[in-house]
Records
---
Amino acid sequence: GNSVTQMEGPVTLSEEAFLTINCTYTATGYPSLFWYVQYPGEGLQLLLKATKADDKGSNKGFEATYRKETTSFHLEKGSVQVSDSAVYFCALSVFSGGYNKLIFGAGTRLAVHP
Amino acid sequence: GAGVSQSPRYKVAKRGQDVALRCDPISGHVSLFWYQQALGQGPEFLTYFQNEAQLDKSGLPSDRFFAERPEGSVSTLKIQRTQQEDSAVYLCASSLVLVQGVEQFFGPGTRLTVL
């Protein structure tokens, strides 16, 4: 079956520290991979995505590379800010039957302090 | 433009009551999804509509859960005879086109608490 495993939180960092949140997946077929972010009091929003192997998604200084050989999609940012404090969800979708059903990891809470 | 909206934002129900949760997707979006997010967990798929057709209801946890989208726009998720284990945030998402890897746009969710 399809599943996503991401590192447990919370992750606590100082401002300007380097961030890595690990994500691995199991999937049949050829999944697309996503990182969604949920800021306090707000809904889920797409942070970045990659639709095929070796693609790199990037947005707001965050990056993730679709690694088929290691079935991974780790999220990285070189210098985090307090405003990056949120819950981050790794997800995959497989296009089947004409639609993409998202399968999410459990989420990783990030807290950045000044 | 307007995003996905959901109402009510918060709902408290006594065990055994019926509830109805509403989702207004982005205008023109063909696909509509419902997800359930338990506390501290990621969202889990409940059901999918393509226009007015419910093509996948494999994630609905029991026959107490029912969803509809009669005119291919607004959708309602109904839970009959609510139980405490139904307490969760219910998320609605929509997407425009039917291609691989398309983004789903999420609403703010309805937080259901069953006492």
Note: The interface with chain A takes residues 4, 31, 33, 35, 40-45, 48, 50, 55-56, 91, 93, 95, 98-109 of chain B (CB under 8 Å).
---
Amino acid sequence: DTGVSQDPRHKITKRGQNVTFRCDPISEHNRLYWYRQTLGQGPEFLTYFQNEAQLEKSRLLSDRFSAERPKGSFSTLEIQRTEQGDSAMYLCASTQPGGNTDTQYFGPGTRLTVL
Amino acid sequence: QKEVEQNSGPLSVPEGAIASLNCTYSDRGSQSFFWYRQYSGKSPELIMSIYSNGDKEDGRFTAQLNKASQYVSLLIRDSQPSDSATYLCAVRSGAGSYQLTFGKGTKLSVIP
């Protein structure tokens, strides 16, 4: 499998619970991005890593959200004390290093439902 | 606030016709422009990227960029029912930022 993978694909949780999602980028892609998409909207940027460094964070990323990429390979996105408004598709994307290419390739997403 | 605007549609075209999808953006310094296709319940799939003014063709798809007008479009020739999807326009502003700003997408329906 050479694409971006995400796990789990679906997550149902109760309000107030913590959830964690994982993203494995395309091999050797050093840039990794997290987006959130709600119904009828385009994806909204959350955060971006270059290797293990978190270089950009959106104001959408409240204190309840945290992302890590400890070894510059896979990344995790954790949401603490989930709220119903967190229900969305969480998308991960990656980009290969170098050159002029900045094309982002998306994984299948994790669909979160908060009851 | 960087904005990307698209007509939400739905845009309906008959099979075999040309579908024209449009997008405008607010950040004049934007450098990279992308069209993604998204089927219902699926993640975005890259169709085209364009960086310079003019046209870029790839099979049945042609992307057009006009930076002076802050306008980017996607033409789909010989539209097929399998092209029915939501098309997302995405813009990267550059200036050290790698995040993409997406429009809300245009829903295209190709009628057999």
Note: Chain B touches chain A through 23 residues (CB under 8 Å).
---
Amino acid sequence: DSGVTQTPKHLITATGQRVTLRCSPRSGDLSVYWYQQSLDQGLQFLIQYYNGEERAKGNILERFSAQQFPDLHSELNLSSLELGDSALYFCASSVEGSNTIYFGEGSWLTVV
Amino acid sequence: GESVGLHLPTLSVQEGDNSIINCAYSNSASDYFIWYKQESGKGPQFIIDIRSNMDKRQGQRVTVLLNKTVKHLSLQIAATQPGDSAVYFCAEKASGTYKYIFGTGTRLKVLA
């Protein structure tokens, strides 16, 4: 158990809908990262937050957004969902000064 | 959930033999590297890391080798066990950045 908690574990929704994925980082970790893992793309970096502020942005679609709250948990919002958004979405966290990031168990999103 | 990356390169190894998993990284400015293990339905799990000022680092049953000249990273697993069966990813990060770039992964199958 990495200490990173993600909910929900599984989610099935229809195209055009919006979902919110939630992440609680490890205790004491200020940085939160979101990654998308699909069959043909591997692990793709979406976005990173540090202590509530966006720190780095990757290949995140405009239909997707994220935020980190004062209690350091983070949410990834996915809207206008398409079939191709079906994937595993991972949250990871790290402590300041450490290069190592620790992953949660992921949220499996299926868009039908 | 089913594991992703069904089209990954696969390495099959006899139980008890040593395994060598290779990774070519892309950015010559990368100065930190991590190996992750991902079991089916789980998040990537940290195995071992290495900084660019090192050529070799050893852990418990695992060794990471770094060849900066050819931008190559390898993970050696000694006395491979059935529990080592998983997908293995390398990740790189450049100094001054917060973005980790993941390789496509290699599936390790341990044969009894």
Note: Chain A touches chain B at residues 2, 4, 9-10, 31, 33, 35, 37-40, 42-45, 48, 50, 55-56, 58, 87-88, 90, 99-106, 108 (CB under 8 Å).
